[in-house]
Amino acid sequence: MLLTFFKRLTIILLFTNCTVNYGQLKLVGNLPSDLQEVSGVETIPNSDKFWMVNDGGNHPRMYVVNATGKIEKTLQIEGKNEDWEDLTKDKAGNVYIGDFGNNNNRRKDLKIYILAANDLNHGKNILPSTIEFSFPNQKKFPPKKKDRYFDVESFFHLNGYLYLFTKSRVKKDYGRTNLYKIPAKSGKHEAEFISTFNSCEDFDCAITSAAISPNGKKVVLLSHETILQFTNFKDDDFLGGKMTKFDLDHKSQKEGICFKDNNTVYITDERSRGKGRNLYVFTLD
């Protein structure tokens, strides 16, 4: 009896010591291995489900994931996953996949896939239309290391435009992001520069995802450890608004963020260094 008691006590202590601390985040669910490198998340209208995609090098697929993190449907996208980095949607229910990851700043084929709402509702094999775009101030591919500000991992849709937030690849300037916009329609476009913002110098400040609230009054930018919220901005100069920083007290390879409502966001992270591949929720107080 005494031996059995100590065995049970040991198991309880081991379980307690292995409890994971998610800081300010609330864990919604663990994601399946098919989403090992989840890089984009977006809520599906009129449901409690999500669209999710993986990072570059994975199959060109988009997944329907339920509120507990389980995959319910897989859509095959007729295109290449060169480096898919983010997801967004418009009010008509069309979904946009950002194939614009550009770690080395050498890509000349930056693109965004447009998935029509009707195809998403009725098909499993989706033939998207395509937006191609370039930056007016990039002249070399790649530019010198001190000028590598043309990686993109973040965007959202608003009023017929897609707003792109760059990810810096410049040492000691990782927290800088440049805001551009392009029309949300197929064709070739030159991105229009709007403004810039710098949060800090460290690599973990680099911006990995962006989203705008349903009422259009809040913009959030995600990094590995924080959320930057912008409010009271004028027109579409989002980075010129009031900035509030939320420290999440949790470090992981966070790659996706989207709004649940005007005050609540969902966040995903990739599996890296033995942790991640989760779906979280966070309230913007």
Describe what is shown at a glance.
By secondary structure, this protein is mainly β. The protein contains 2 helices and 22 strands.
Overview of this protein structure:
The chain is mainly beta. It has one domain: 6 Propeller (Neuraminidase). Helix content is 8%, strand content 44%. It contains two helices and 22 strands. The chain has helices at 2-17, 117-122; strands at residues 26-30, 38-43, 50-54, 61-65, 71-77, 84-89, 95-99, 111-115, 125-126, 129-134, 151-158, 161-167, 176-183, 187-190, 192-198, 209-212, 219-222, 226-231, 242-247, 254-261, 264-269, 278-283. The chain has a five-stranded mixed sheet, with no helix packed on it. Strands 6-7-8-10-14 form a five-stranded mixed sheet. A four-stranded antiparallel sheet has the order 1-22-21-20, with no helix packed on it. A hairpin with an 8-residue loop joins strand 21 and strand 22 (278-283). The radius of gyration is 20 Å and the shape is globular. The protein starts with a helix and ends with a strand. The model is unreliable at 9-18 (pLDDT under 50).
